[in-house]
C-alpha cells in the first residue's frame, strides 16, 4: 500500500519560516494537498495541486513538490498557525492517502 | 453559504449497523465528487470512501471494503454512508467532504468539510 511520511512534530519561532515535509514514492508525479486542523475543529484545505492556495488562505502559506517530497512552507509564522498539518495525495491506483500528520508548535 | 452537515452518528455495539447522512447546501451538489473521511480519537485523518458526481464510480479504503457502502441522492443534495459489521476500530469522527476534481477524474483535494459526526462502537 502507498504511504506518505511526515515528521511528527515541527517547532518554529514566531515570524520565522516553518517547513513541513511529506514524502512518498514518486510523490512528485502526483499532486499533493495540505490541510490545517486546529484542536476541536474540522480540517481546512490550505494548499492543493502542490502549490495553489484556496481563496481566503493567507499568502504566507505556500507549497512545492519535487521528486519524492512535497513541502508546506509557512513564512512569517504566527501563533494562530499552531495546528496539525496533513498532506494528502490521490492516484487512480491508490485512491486517497493522507500522511500521518505533523504537529506545528510556535514557540 | 457552502455547508455540509453530517448526522446519524451514535453508540452501536460491535457487529451492528449505522447509516450516516450528509446534507449539502450552498452549491450545486451534483457537480462534485464527495468523500467520507474519519478520524479516530487522538489519531490522524483516514480516508474512507469517495463517490463521483454521478455516482458511477466509487472507491473504498481496504479497511472498510465489503462492510461500508457510500451512496448519494443528487435530487436531495445528500451523501450517505451505510456502515455494517462495525468494529471497535471504526470508532471515530466521520467527516463529509466536497472534493475538487478535474474533467479527467483527478481528485486533487477536499475543499469543504462538515463538522463531523461521532461514531462509537462499543459493547
Largest sheet of chain A: 6 strands, mixed
Write down the overall mean pLDDT of chain A. Answer: 96
* Overall 3D shape of chain B: globular
Q: What helical percentage do the residues of chain B reach?
A: under 10%
Instruction: Write down the overall mean pLDDT of chain B.
Output: 96
> Which two protein chains have the largest interface (Cβ within 8 Å of the partner's Cβ), and how many residues from each?
A-B, 24 and 23 residues
* Oligomeric state of the chains present here: heterodimer
The stretches of 5 or more residues of chain B where confidence is low (pLDDT under 50) are none
Describe this structure in words.
The complex is a heterodimer of chains A (107) and B (123). With 107 residues, chain A is mainly β. Chain A has strands spanning 9-12, 18-23, 32-37, 44-47, 61-66, 69-74, 83-91, 95-98, 102-106. In chain A, strands 1, 3, 4, 7, 8 and 9 form a 6-stranded mixed beta sheet that branches. A 3-stranded antiparallel beta sheet of chain A has the order 2-6-5, with no helix packed on it. The N and C termini of chain A lie far apart (36 Å). In chain A, 37% of the residues are buried. The mean pLDDT of chain A is 96. Chain B has 123 residues and is mainly beta. Chain B has no helices and 11 strands. In chain B, the strands form 2 sheets. In chain B, strands 2, 4, 5, 6, 9, 10 and 11 form a 7-stranded mixed beta sheet that branches. Chain B has a 4-stranded antiparallel beta sheet with strand order 1-3-8-7, with no helix packed on it. In chain B, a hairpin with a 5-residue loop joins strand 9 (92-101) and strand 10. Chain A binds chain B through residues 1, 31, 33, 35, 37, 42-45, 48-49, 54, 84, 86, 88, 90, 92, 95-101, and chain B through 35, 37, 44-47, 50, 59, 61-62, 95, 100, 105-111, 113-116.
Amino acid at each position: 500500500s502507498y504511504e506518505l511520511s511526515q515528521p511528527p512534530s515541527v517547532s518554529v519561532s514566531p515570524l520565522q519560516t516553518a517547513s513541513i515535509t511529506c514524502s512518498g514514492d514518486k510523490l512528485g508525479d502526483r499532486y499533493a494537498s495540505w490541510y490545517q486542523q486546529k484542536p476541536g475543529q474540522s480540517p481546512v484545505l490550505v494548499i492543493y495541486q502542490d502549490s495553489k492556495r484556496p481563496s481566503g488562505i493567507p499568502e504566507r502559506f505556500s507549497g512545492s513538490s519535487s521528486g519524492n517530497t512535497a513541502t508546506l512552507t509557512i513564512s512569517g509564522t504566527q501563533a494562530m498557525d499552531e495546528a496539525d498539518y496533513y498532506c494528502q495525495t490521490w492516484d487512480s491506483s491508490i485512491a486517497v492517502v493522507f500522511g500521518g500528520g505533523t504537529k506545528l508548535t510556535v514557540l | 453559504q457552502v455547508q455540509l452537515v453530517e448526522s446519524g452518528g451514535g453508540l452501536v455495539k460491535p457487529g451492528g449497523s449505522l447509516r450516516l447522512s450528509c446534507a449539502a447546501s450552498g452549491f450545486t451538489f451534483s457537480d462534485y465528487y464527495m468523500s467520507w473521511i474519519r478520524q479516530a480519537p487522538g489519531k490522524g485523518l483516514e480516508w474512507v470512501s469517495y463517490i463521483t458526481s454521478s455516482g458511477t464510480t466509487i472507491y473504498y479504503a481496504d479497511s472498510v471494503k465489503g462492510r461500508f457502502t457510500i451512496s448519494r441522492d443528487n435530487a436531495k443534495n445528500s451523501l450517505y454512508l451505510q456502515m455494517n459489521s462495525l468494529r471497535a476500530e471504526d470508532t471515530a469522527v466521520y467527516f463529509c467532504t466536497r472534493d475538487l476534481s478535474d474533467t479527467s477524474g483527478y481528485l486533487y483535494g477536499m475543499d469543504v468539510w462538515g463538522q463531523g459526526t461521532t461514531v462509537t462502537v462499543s459493547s
